Amino acid sequence: MKKVACMVLAAAGLAASSAFAADMPVKAPPAAAATTPVWDVVVTAAIMNDYNFRGITQSNHQPSAQSGFEFRYNWTPTVQAYAGISGESIDFPNRAAAEVDFYGGVRPTFGKLALDFGVWYYYYPDGQCFNTPALCSSLGGGSSVALALPNGNTIKQNLSFIEGYAKATYTINDNWAVGIQEWYSPSVENSGADGWYTVGNVTFTAPSSWLPSGVGGYISGDLGYWALGTTDAFYAIAGFPSGIPYTSYWNWDAGFGWTWKVLTLDLRYYQSDLSKGDCNAFTGDQTAGGTSNVTPINPSGLGSDWCGAAFIAKLSASIDFNANLK
């Protein structure tokens, strides 16, 4: 995926950190001081040994790069509007070139409570439909047909989709913060299946006296549940002629990290409770193999390890033009 990683970084034209994972717990900014400029820009970049989204690898357990930027407008000291774009290198079954995220929303704060409401669009350009040409065209799979994946899985040309979200973070004190997020899509990965994703998180920020001067530290964890619906007829199989009911699942992560100036090093463990068979049905993993992972929605028995345990190290940078480049 070297070509993809370079394309993502060049397309975004950036050199610094990480607004990449749509479901990551990100605090809304604290109430702006009276001297805070009305406009602000934050540039981000990251490298990681795997790109994981809700317990599932997006890069086939291979290294991934991210870059992006976010424009912010402070309406008042406690209300901020924002819009951004972020790009990630991926390895998808439909051979999409990259993930490009477009998002925007508003962040109001009420004392210790920070809220965030917005819309996120996941764009996966240059994909191909893997199925028979007749089914690709007749069932909405797409016009760019690449016949079948080597393992027999099928996937649409266009996997792009949209989600709306609402987030709340409550800062208990200088060390503890808790949050909850709700995400909804009418068609997850353009499959026809709707999806409600709920995630809660907790973060402990280490007291400054515990670490060397200028170094910060934290421990955090997330627990999420993705309630998924039924696909359209493109993914239909015997027994489910109108589409397969995706298996809803839990996912979680826990980790710790250090911050220094604009840099953050995060070390994190990810896991989900999807079986290898249901993981294959959900992802269409082009590397899935075997015949023993039979489930009602995965009669082929192919098994995918994309939803299994993963340990991920991520180095990211975030440059706030007003705060870091004065």
Radius of gyration: 20 Å
**Tally of separate domains:** 1
Question: What's the CATH H-level superfamily name?
Answer: Inverse autotransporter, beta-domain
Q: Report low-confidence residues grouped into runs of 5 or more.
A: 1-28
The counted number of beta strands is 14
Q: How confident overall, as mean pLDDT?
A: 90
CATH topology term: Porin
Percentage of residues in strands? 35-45%
Summarize the main sheet: 12 strands, antiparallel, barrel
Q: What gross morphology would you assign? A: globular
Structural class of the secondary structure composition?
mainly beta
How large is the count of helical segments? 4
Order of helices and strands: HEEEEEEEHEEEEEEHEH
Q: Which strand order do you get reading across the main beta sheet?
A: 1-4-5-6-7-8-9-10-11-12-13-14
Description:
It is a single chain. With 326 residues, this protein is mainly β. The chain has one domain: Inverse autotransporter, beta-domain (Porin, Beta Barrel), CATH 2.40.160.160. It contains four helices and 14 strands. A twelve-stranded antiparallel beta barrel has the order 1-4-5-6-7-8-9-10-11-12-13-14. β12 and β13 form a beta hairpin. It is globular, with a radius of gyration of 20 Å. It starts with a helix and ends with a helix.
